[in-house]
Design a protein that fits this description.
The chain has about 260 residues and is α/β, with parallel strands linked by helices. The chain has seven helices and seven strands, in the order βαβαβαβαβαβααβ. It is about 45% helix and about 15% strand. The protein has a seven-stranded parallel β-sheet, sandwiched between helices.
Length: about 260
């Protein structure tokens, strides 16, 4: 049982790993002994965060824009130059857009779906060979997609493209789980509720008290809540889960589904 929740020695890629939920997961995995690659569009920030995380483990920066197919190919190729096997892929990079329905631009759907949905698909398919190389019957390779409880229920805010894209991520997770099971790769999604991140900062500032009041556990998510779920899914303890969507939201979604 001592190694049931261990990811020590595994290699992971975390997109959007320089801030927010991606950083929570990357930091947790580094501290748990994994060899972690983080990626984000801003090279300088990505490099700085990787250097910081390397103080407590092994973390490497590979800047890329996963909102394009070419960017996903670049990231996969750069990982392939460094590694023959990849145990864990965390598709976390995301984009959001909020505007009233009457003013919501068509371009918002293009931008948000390009990163949140197409980026997940392209990067997973490009890294599938490295994931298959790491997989065994007892310990499959893992893909973890970051969805949202806004993809499980109608959101309170005017985030039409974001909430739709996260529902698509949940469905894509199920489709990929079936497609990749034969290669011993599991695919699961985490659907976060409110966490303290740059994307959520303004929302929490304006509505933090009411969000806490609506949460059965009465608080906002902490970094170790997110890291713990990702590490569980990546460890031997999570080896028999695939095609699942796990809400990590303090019970909020149970009140609205």
């Amino acid at each position: 049982m001592s190694g049931l929740f261990s990811i020590e020695g595994k290699t992971a890629v975390v997109t959007g790993g320089s801030r927010g939920i991606g950083l929570m997961i990357a930091r947790g995995m580094v501290e748990a002994g994994a060899n972690v690659y983080i990626s984000s569009r801003k090279a300088e920030v990505c490099d700085e965060v990787a250097a910081e995380l390397s103080k407590s483990g092994t973390c490497t920066s590979i800047p890329a824009d996963v909102g394009t197919e070419a960017g996903c190919r670049l990231l996969a190729d750069e990982v392939g130059k460094r590694e023959e096997r990849l145990h864990i892929l965390v598709n976390n990079a995301g984009a959001n857009w909020g505007a009233p329905m009457a003013e919501f631009p068509d371009s918002a759907f293009d931008k948000v779906f390009a990163v949140n949905v197409k980026g997940v698909f392209h990067l997973t398919r490009f890294l599938a060979p490295l994931l298959a190389n790491a997989a065994t019957d007892d310990d499959p390779a893992r893909v973890i997609n970051i969805g949202s409880i806004d993809g499980l229920q109608a959101p309170a805010l005017d985030t039409f493209s974001y909430s739709s894209s996260k529902a698509a991520v949940h469905q894509l997770t199920r489709v990929l789980a079936h497609k990749l099971a034969g290669q011993r790769i599991t695919v699961n999604a985490i659907a976060p509720g409110p966490f303290e991140s740059k994307m959520m900062a303004e929302t929490l500032q304006r509505f933090g008290d009411s969000i806490k009041a609506s949460c059965p556990l009465g608080r906002i998510g902490r970094p170790d809540d997110m890291a713990g779920t990702a590490i569980f899914l990546s460890s031997r303890a999570g080896a028999y889960l695939t095609g699942t969507v796990i809400p990590v939201d303090g019970g909020i979604s149970t009140r609205h589904q």
